[in-house]
Amino acid sequence: MNRPLAILATSAALTLAGAVQGTAFAADAAASPSVPGTCVTGYRGVVVNEICAIVSGDQVTFHGRTTPTSVSWTPRLVPFRLTARIVGGAELGAATPTVNVSWSATPVGRISGTLPCGSTAEATLETTQWGWPPATATVVVPASC
Predict the structure, then answer these.
(1) Pairing between β-strand 106-114 and β-strand 59-68 as defined by DSSP bridges
(2) How far is residue 120's CA from residue 44's CA, in Å, rounded to a whole number?
(3) Which end of the chain has fewer surrounding CB within 10 Å, N or C?
(4) Contact 115, 70 (CB under 8 A)
(5) Which residues share a beta bridge with 79?
(6) Over the stretch 38-58, which tens digit does the pLDDT of each residue have?
(7) 47, 49, 52: which is closest to 69 by C-alpha?
């Protein structure tokens, strides 16, 4: 095999290996959340966003985290938007943190609030990095009182 063709074949194999590992990493992140409660993930190629809700009576807490999908990720500052609201009602909170995303799962934010009995709350975590496809995760939970 000539040298340019060997380089091209090696490059393609390494790219495929990174894509497979990134996909497995994203699937693993979606299958085993480290935060208790109801969790939802959103994936669009660059990062996996996860939002979890913990409901206790009329109290709800939403936790967000993000994980890069590539082994070649370089830690960097990434802007996010985290919003929570009562469905059909008031906003529970909003945050727009810029977080230094490292190589592993990185906490993004937290919003807590009180829900009227019988209501439902929803929270969304999204990446707002210009030039990236949006990675959005939304979780919806009922009050448990």
Answers:
(1) antiparallel
(2) 27
(3) N
(4) no
(5) 98
(6) 999 988 778 899 999 999 988
(7) 47
